[in-house]
Design goal:
This protein is of the alpha+beta class and 231 residues long. It is globular, with a radius of gyration of 17 Å. It contains five helices and eleven strands; from the N terminus they run H-H-E-E-E-H-E-E-H-E-E-H-E-E-E-E. 13% of the residues lie in helices and 26% in strands. The protein has one domain: Oxidoreductase, molybdopterin-binding domain (Sulfite Oxidase, Chain A, domain 2). The relative contact order is 0.20. The protein starts with 8 loop residues before the first helix and ends in a 26-residue tail after the last strand.
């Protein structure tokens, strides 16, 4: 796998003193708090944490963060699910649409500093997929893979949460290609690089495998409320 150039916390914090910051990702920006953002930051989630994590700024629309796009051609697309499972699968888009779908309204947080509140998604609960493939007891992590040698991983415990889905719809419309069509992972409680776009494969593994950005210095745990941007 190709490794991303090393990004350190020191480099990020040194750059963040300005209004516009470039740290190796397209569309990167960090803005100072304004009165509206302070009011939003004062709102709390059901778990008691701030809706806007430290160092984040609310935006009105989801920016296009770039990346190596998948084909976006639904008839030719397949999702492979394998690794430490008893029943590996290769699913067409329609196979997924025949499963139980769920709607999700959530806040998403990009490592570059923006937060989109009340984003609307539709897709398949990841636990539904895990039940289909019958994950083995020795599996501890899930690796999401996409074109361009991109990958990211999360612990199996995080994947079982109610708000982790495979999304095919955004804002009541089919997922746009620039945001990951036909399918992307959605892991709202981690920085957004964990929500892999143009998803092609899901692997269940015993030991963790740091992904594209994580191999370049980004945090593997990626907790926005702890500001785990870089290791």
């Amino acid at each position: 796998m190709k490794k991303n150039p090393k990004i350190t916390r020191r480099k990020f914090m040194a750059a963040a003193g300005g209004t516009i910051v470039s740290i190796g990702l397209p569309g990167v920006f960090v803005k100072a708090m304004d009165s509206e953002n302070r009011a939003l930051a004062a709102q709390l989630r059901a778990d008691g944490r701030s809706r806007i994590p430290p160092g984040q700024h609310a935006v009105k629309a989801m920016p296009n963060m770039g990346g190596v796009k998948g084909p976006g051609n639904v008839p030719d697309w397949r999702l492979s699910i394998d690794g430490e499972v008893q029943n590996p699968l290769s699913l067409r888009f329609q196979d997924l649409m025949n499963l139980k779908l769920m709607d999700l309204i959530c806040d998403v947080h990009c490592v570059t500093g923006w937060t989109l509140l009340d984003s609307r998604w539709r897709g398949i609960h990841l636990q539904t997929i895990m039940d289909l493939v019958k994950v083995k007891k020795n599996a501890g992590f899930i690796v999401f893979e996409a074109p361009g040698d991109y990958s990211s991983s999360i612990p199996l415990s995080a994947a079982r949460k109610d708000n982790v889905i495979l999304a095919h719809s955004f804002s009541d419309q089919n997922l746009p290609l620039e945001h990951g069509a036909p399918l992307r992972g959605l892991v709202p409680d981690r920085y957004f690089y964990k929500s892999v776009k143009w998803l092609e494969r899901i692997r269940f593994v015993v030991e963790d495998e740091p992904g594209y950005y994580e191999s370049g210095g980004y945090s593997n745990s990626a907790d926005p409320w702890k500001e785990e941007r870089f290791d």
